[in-house]
Design brief:
By secondary structure, this protein is an alpha+beta fold. The protein has helices spanning 3-24, 44-62, 113-143; strands at 28-33, 36-41, 97-102, 105-110. The longest helix is centred in the last third of the chain and has 31 residues, at 113-143.
Length: 147
């Protein structure tokens, strides 16, 4: 991992710590809207936390773009090209796949049939877990109603 990645992760951790400090001192609040945690700050510590988090995301997102840019300390000469390596077997095509779960319905995709099948299995496991937890929640709400 390059230094730019460590810088981005450090900024994210610092932003999270500042957010915790902001909530602990009463300068910020956290709530849950649907399933998304929401933070808002009323003081300088809350603003600093959000600014540090945004900076950390920016460094992680755009940092690798600037790693190949010379800083002006190197010579302007182009590097000498190395002789090509002996050709071996062509590289294997990359495989990719994923699953999108909309409610309890999984939508699987993949670059080949085997990978798409595995993504469907993962999606079905997530959907079954979701349905099971929902049924358990309803059973708990019926058996132990809140006053």
């Amino acid at each position: 991992m390059r230094w730019i990645h460590w810088l981005g992760l450090g900024l994210l951790l610092a932003g999270g710590a500042l957010m915790v400090a902001s909530v602990a001192t009463g300068q910020g609040q956290v709530s849950l809207v649907l399933i998304v945690p929401v933070f808002w700050g009323t003081g300088a510590l809350g603003f600093l936390a959000v600014a540090t988090l945004f900076l950390g995301f920016g460094v992680l997102l755009f940092g690798p773009l600037f790693q190949g840019v010379p800083l002006g300390t190197e010579s302007a000469e182009a590097p000498t090209p190395e002789p090509p390596a002996v050709a071996t077997a062509p590289p294997a095509a990359p495989r990719y796949g994923g699953v999108v779960v909309v409610g309890p319905f999984p939508i699987a995709f993949g670059s080949d049939r085997q990978l798409a099948t595995w993504m469907l299995v993962v999606g079905l496991a997530i959907a079954i877990g979701f349905v099971a937890l929902t049924v358990l929640w309803f059973v708990n709400a019926v058996l132990y109603p809140s006053p």
